[in-house]
Specification:
This protein is an alpha+beta fold and about 160 residues long. It contains two helices and seven strands. The chain has two domains: about 40 residues, no CATH class; about 110 residues, Immunoglobulin-like (Sandwich), CATH 2.60.40. It is about 15% helix and about 30% strand. The strands form two sheets. The chain has a four-stranded antiparallel beta sheet with strand order 1-2-7-6, with no helix packed on it. The protein has a three-stranded antiparallel beta sheet with strand order 3-4-5, with no helix packed on it. The longest helix is centred in the N-terminal third of the chain and has 13 residues. It starts with 7 loop residues before the first helix and ends in a 15-residue tail after the last strand.
Length: about 160
Amino acid sequence: MNTGTAMAPTKALNALQRRWDPLGFFETPFNRFFEGLNSPFAEEAFPLTKWAPACDIYETEKEVVVKAELPGLKKEDVNVSIENNLLTIYGERKFEEETKKDNYHRVERIYGEFMRSFTLPMFVDIGKIGAEFKDGILMLTLPKREEAKPKQIEVKIK
């Protein structure tokens, strides 16, 4: 199944612009608006968060799967919600208070609140979404509605 083909003309225009202007000198807000429309999982921007966990999104015949890397977090530190067809993963990685900051030689991990938000396609059955948290990976299973699943139609000869 090839998703997002309705916006293929803008995808071609974006590719053409990148070939002529690879460093983005002539990029405009108008061009950036159409950049996210090529995906049915267009991400919402939340520039006020300190960090954003890496997410993978893939689709099978029966469902869409979202995997988010949340190392060092517990189930209680993560909140998943859906409102107006917008899937939001929100949480916070807290700094370990056991050791004083004065004793640290280097702090490279990012701490604080995070938020990732994705617009869901209309074919997702929101009432049957499943969530599993294991080994620092949050896996959301978004089943497709029955009418959205591919069906094989038998052709009869008369």
